[in-house]
UniProtKB/TrEMBL annotation:
It comes from the Bacteria. Its main location: membrane. The chain crosses the membrane at residues 12-32, 39-56, 68-92, 104-127, 133-154, 161-184. This is Putative manganese efflux pump MntP. It comes from Neobacillus rhizophilus. Keywords: Cell membrane, Ion transport, Manganese, Membrane, Transmembrane, Transmembrane helix, Transport. PANTHER family: MANGANESE EFFLUX PUMP MNTP-RELATED (PTHR35529:SF1). Coiled coil: none annotated. The gene is mntP. The keyword Iron-sulfur does not apply.
Length: 185
């Protein structure tokens, strides 16, 4: 029982790290004059993408694990490290991001862009044989909640937390990657 609780806690922490980019971009988008119904819709769509992308990644990860065994595990840890460093790096850059409007194709592009890292993490979790339904529920629910929080908070503040939240998410993924790679060192 404690093993399941530990796995849920780990997955929720990973899901929170992955949802940080949705949260931080949601902060910026929250500055649009959005109705609560639109905020609800955006959160649901982001949540769906945070289910579909790790599912695709887990499927690919399980295939790689069966084909390449320990090498696939090493690559999975390396992917988390690279993703974590990339998230930290992008949070430190000073460029202005292009604003994507949260309607139509812009919303789908936004959802895809903030869930791409979920594919990589899903790949790693597939390699390690994580419980698929548990991963997808944790990732989908957390991404939806963080998107809503970012959008609602964005209506109230000017984005002062955005870069820091993405850096925190990157640091969490980096730590998990190092932990997974430590097995091989």
């Amino acid at each position: 029982m404690s093993e399941v609780v530990g796995e849920i806690m780990t997955l929720m922490l990973m899901a929170a790290a992955l949802g940080m980019d949705a949260f931080s971009v949601g902060l910026g988008m929250g500055m649009y004059k959005l109705r609560l119904r639109k905020i609800f819709e955006i959160g649901i769509i982001i949540g769906i993408f945070h289910v579909l992308m790790p599912l695709a990644g887990m499927t690919a990860g399980r295939f790689l694990s069966e084909q390449f065994g320990a090498l696939a595990s090493f690559i999975g840890g390396l992917l988390l490290i690279i993703l974590g460093v990339q998230m930290i790096w992008s949070s430190l850059k000073d460029d202005d991001e292009k604003v994507i409007t949260p309607v139509g194709l812009g919303l789908l592009f936004f959802a895809l862009s903030v869930s791409m890292d979920s594919f990589s993490v899903g790949l790693t979790l597939g390699i390690y044989g994580a419980k698929t339904v548990l991963v997808l529920v944790c990732f989908g629910v957390m991404a939806t909640l963080q998107t809503w929080a970012g959008l609602l908070l964005g209506k109230k503040v000017r984005g002062w937390l955005g870069a820091y939240s993405e850096a925190l998410g990157g640091a969490i993924l980096l730590a998990f990657g190092i932990k997974l790679m430590a097995v091989f060192l």
